[in-house]
């Protein structure tokens, strides 16, 4: 056994030394050398750093900032950029590579290195002028007719992470995928090209590329403001936080241009800061993340509170909850159906889409209103490609706070235009003496209460997720809440997803594509009897709580 351990450490040491010889970043080399110097105590850490290369997943590359192939660092980014531009050339894609970045540690440096690799390969590179929201990069790919786009961001991941998202232009993405995130087989092609990159010292680096001016962000803001009706009510007081991300300047400019009052911004979360000092986890959905936003909303007597995640592609909505004596965050499904209903009432006809883990309410609304509907696998890369082409996509959402209210503007989730559209709806309702929660009650009275929740488990050992998925497949529940399971779907090999349905409930179980989490999405539908929405909500809430307990037991986590 001792000999085996020595052999393993010797192998890791040799792999690390080869990595050090090829790493272009002195700081990264110093970091890895420090790990080597602590062997054998640092053996598990070194093994994790060399457990395998980061691969293109749901959102391109994403991982912890650290030296080694299983992390985000200058060497990994150089290799990824070289593979990407090689693949673009092999596919015959013409046009520039547009590159954006957020305010996380390393983002600007990774963006600049990507530009140097692109120009070194003979392709024009355009850098956004400063840290800007992901929707601005997605917009730029279409606006500038680029071959592709890269956004350096880890979205709402922990501060120690970073990531690398790839968008395709019209030439490779086609009509529905122009300015959208990559899907198969592009991801596999790029991954293969990345693995084929030789020594990094042989990757040619060119000039830094063109740094774009502010006119691009101005153009984005102009089109974003045009998403809402210019003649609608504007009497609304809004509190806002970008959660130390890059959304504040763009969102406040868009609100101002659209004729709304400029939202009040949480002061100590207003400026971009990749350390996210006031939140334990920079995701609006996490407990405590919007506490400062709620405090600002209360002190300013706001009608509505809005949070973006750090790269501003998601939008959280927090509303007064008089019954509870405070404020509550609307679920992603609630915001999704509010936005869809609002667009439908504005006469926007076309395809409405969501994902297999979202509420069934959107389907019911589309059926009743004779509108095309589709649902896809999770991720906006699938949502924006929904349908069979017979009707244009006009709205898509996913329950994880992602909304696309103007697919012709940004072919991805967009927290800026979503916030504007929520504000438009809230202002219109306020002018009538009503609120967003009033409108939710009206939808419940018409279609039944669709109560959704999530059972989510974060793990440090990914084998626990695999074991749980195997467990639920081997012993699939035959009843839920005492009612027979009428449909069981296993989406393998296309996706690692198990779906269970009864006549009144639905459960969708899947591993997260961006975090070490196992997620179970729960839904219970309760009809409203004699107009008593509150009673139906209470019954649905009790049923979902019981469903959580059943699913937790089935998963064994």
TrEMBL record:
PANTHER family assigned to the protein according to its UniProt record, in alphabetical order: PHOSPHOGLUCOMUTASE 2B-RELATED (PTHR45745:SF1), PHOSPHOMANNOMUTASE 45A (PTHR45745)
Lineage: Bacteria, Bacillati, Actinomycetota, Actinomycetes, Micromonosporales
PROSITE patterns noted in UniProt: PGM_PMM
Domain Alpha-D-phosphohexomutase C-terminal: 457-536
Top-rank lineage group of the source organism: Bacteria
The protein's name: Phosphomannomutase
Gene Ontology molecular function: magnesium ion binding; phosphopentomutase activity
InterPro entries, alphabetized: A-D-PHexomutase_a/b/a-I, A-D-PHexomutase_a/b/a-I/II/III, A-D-PHexomutase_a/b/a-II, A-D-PHexomutase_a/b/a-III, A-D-PHexomutase_C, A-D-PHexomutase_C_sf, A-D-PHexomutase_CS, Alpha-D-phosphohexomutase_SF
UniProt similarity note: Belongs to the phosphohexose mutase family.
GO BP, sorted A to Z: carbohydrate metabolic process; purine ribonucleoside salvage
Any Pfam family matching the protein: PGM_PMM_III
Provenance organism: Micromonospora echinospora
Keyword Calcium (UniProt): no
Keywords recorded for this protein, A-Z: Isomerase, Magnesium, Metal-binding, Phosphoprotein
Cofactor(s) this protein cannot do without: Mg(2+)
Residue ranges of every copy of the Alpha-D-phosphohexomutase alpha/beta/alpha domain listed in the record: 55-169, 219-318, 332-445
